[in-house]
Amino acid sequence: MVSKAAIKILEGMRRSKGGWRRKDFDTVYLGFGFIITPGRSHDIVKHPDFPQLRDTLPRHAKELGKAYVSRTIELIDRLNKLKGEIEAADE
Q1: Would you list the domain boundaries of the chain?
Q2: Number of H helices, E strands in the chain
Q3: 17 vs 43, 52, 67, CA distance in Å?
Q4: The domain at 4-90 falls in which architecture?
Q5: What's the N-to-C CA distance of the chain in angstroms?
Q6: What does the DSSP assignment read for the chain?
Q7: Predicted TM-score (pTM) of this structure
Q8: What angle do the packed helices 4-15 and 22-31 form, to 10 degrees?
Q9: How far is Cα 50 from Cα 39, in angstroms, rounded to an integer?
Q10: Of all helices (H) and strands (E), which one includes residue 46?
Q11: What is the pLDDT of residues 22-39, one digit of tens each?
């Protein structure tokens, strides 16, 4: 089940790509079931059921760039599509 906070932030990211902090990305990714693994300068974000869905996030940036927002939206959209394909195959 996806958290309401993750959905709310993701909707905001779709409206505006600027001004998002690392904690916002963490809320979205964790809320959609991703695992965040610490790295040195970047953390690795990966979904346990779909390991092909992965990204990196800088550890020490206050605000993340618009490219990170675009990639996050794309990754969540791909996740939803994959989940939909599995549900359709199960029916």
Answers
A1: 4-90
A2: 3, 3
A3: 21, 24, 8
A4: 2-Layer Sandwich (3.30)
A5: 20
A6: ---HHHHHHHHHHHH--SS-BHHHHHHHHHHTT-EEE--SSEEEEE-SS-TT-EEEEESS-SB--HHHHHHHHHHHHHHHHHHHHHHHHH-
A7: 0.92
A8: 120
A9: 20
A10: strand 42-46
A11: 999 999 999 999 999 999
